Amino acid sequence: MKATKHHFDLIIVGLGAMGSAAFYQAAKRGLKVLGIDRYTPPHTMGSSHAETRITRLAVGEGIQYVPLVARSHEIWKELEEKSGQPLFLQSGGLIIGAREGGARFHGTSTDFLLKTKSVGDQYGIPVEFQSATAIQSRFPNLRIQNHERAVYEPGAGVVLCEDAIAVQLQLGRQYGGFVHFNEAVQRLSPHRDHIEVSSTINSFRAERAIVCTGPWINDFLPASKLDLFRVCRQVVYWFEAESLPDFGSDRFPFAIWIGRQLGDFFTVFPAVKNGIKGVKMVTEQYEESTSPSTVDRRVTAAEVRHFYDNFAAQK
Length: 315
Prior knowledge:
315 residues; six-stranded mixed sheet; alpha+beta
């Protein structure tokens, strides 16, 4: 739906995971809302693609996030009922670390496995410690070392991130929301009683605006705030499996390995039925910064070999 007038209650800039969710909720509440994206979402140019994202209730990063995740699980169910599309796959999830503890993750100061279990216990979320032997027996496709253990959350799983974006944009438009695709916003100018949003094509006014531009966020910050965010290139890998159904979400959980340092971090995802034909795996790097306009989107053979030798072949 294209906008017919240029004044809105709310304008959302960027329609990836966060922007599409805000667009749907605003339209559902009856606001006159416009969503703008420089591409046609869901797309592969930002950070909301690659098929799946992990979701878990026992959030070891902080107990304050549990109500937010719990609410998101309610929303996934609501969206599934309204769209008739599966969006949340309850595969279960493992957080794996050294048996003697000490695993740090995402800025936590205590052992991440213990923190995850503590959060689960405080909120009554079913989570349990499992030994390497128990994990290996239950999930034989995972190679767990004897010095490792895991916290298992059966209610965790993965969200089909690109499908979730598409569904929320579709439903938001059905509620009366407007979208402009392939239109880059260049400037936001706050005034006393409105915000002016200028794109490469149009100029709009709104009572409020939400910026959900991911790696493009620095385009909208003052020079004094440019050090708040860094954009780092992350690579997603898919590897062939001898029996891909054995990695399906009905048999295989996501597994996050927490190492002693960031370079040891590694995650494997359940395969999606009728999705990409392979097992998805990722690690993280924050040593090199980039920008969405200069990032190298090619994955080299050397990168694939290094990842396979150091992560996939061992797990």
